[in-house]
Amino acid sequence: MNAAVRNAIRQFVKNDLTWTILKPIVKVSEFLTYQREVATAVPSVDPDKRVFEDLIGTPVVKYGPLTGLKYPSFTSYGSSIYPKIIGSYEAEIAPVVEQIIANGYSEILDIGCAEGYYANGLALKSPGSKVYAYDTDEQARTFCTEMAELNGVSDRVSVSGTCTAEMLAKFPFTGKGLIFCDCEGYEKHLFNKNNVDNLTNCDLLIETHDFIDITISGYIEDLFKHTHDIEVIRSLDDITKAKTYGFAEGKGLNIVQREKLYHEGRPHIMEWYWLKTKGRK
Fold it and tell me: Does 165 share its domain with 215?
């Protein structure tokens, strides 16, 4: 491009009115270019995938409170599969999950269930509980249903789409209930003053997403502080997990491979709010 043409273009786009018209077109062009690159890219295969799956063997949870949970395949929705099969996934809340299993809830609501790691795992380990699993992803719901059948708990796992605040206000708990919630910031809309009365005899484990809205955790704490005892549990970053986790499957791997194996991909340190009802004796 010669200097005269280049200068003419610069003068053209420097005009505010011209740029107001052109900018959306440029943005659309950038977006379409990116989508074309994605659509035409040849999928790459991580060479460590075979290494990890050979080390792990069959996709059955190896360790932790959900040991023995069977997966139809090495597939996960919205999170990494290998930590789930190993049992390192969200190990920070493993003691709480053990409490949940021991408590024997009448109903367990898993809101944001993905492929059903917790929904089916809790159904498997808590045979007296009826589990209601909710997710907006149709493929995840299909996989969750398949996993329930594989683990012999399909008669106690009900899989549905969106759970709303209005549904929580009217949910017919028959005894002591549990709500297990990981819904990517939607928790601020899901729990409110109109349904909190129906949850006073429930325990809740809510993963808060302050990186989406920094007011979420404070909102949850204010909403439940009069009816529930509150414990806050913080997540570990993936680097710490790679350096400190001692699961057998990670031994013999280098630090880069261990970070991949235990990788959960949280964008920031996260918090779980473990809310235990003050009303239940």
Answer: yes
Number of domains in the chain: 2
- The answer to whether residues 29 and 166 belong to one domain is no
Tens of pLDDT, residue by residue over 12-34, are 656 776 656 666 565 556 555 64
Q: Using CB atoms within 10 A of its CB, is residue 228 exposed (0-12), middle (13-18) or buried (19+)? A: buried
Full domain range(s) for residue 190? 47-277
φ, ψ of residue 12 to 5 degrees: the values are -65, -50
Are residues 245 and 159 part of one domain? Answer: yes
Same-domain check for residues 265 and 216: yes
Closest CA to 208 of 100, 93, 64: 93
Closest CA to 160 of 177, 135, 190, 124: 135
How confident is the model over 71-124, as pLDDT tens digits?
999 999 989 999 999 999 999 999 999 999 999 999 999 999 999 999 999 999
One domain, residues 36 and 74: no
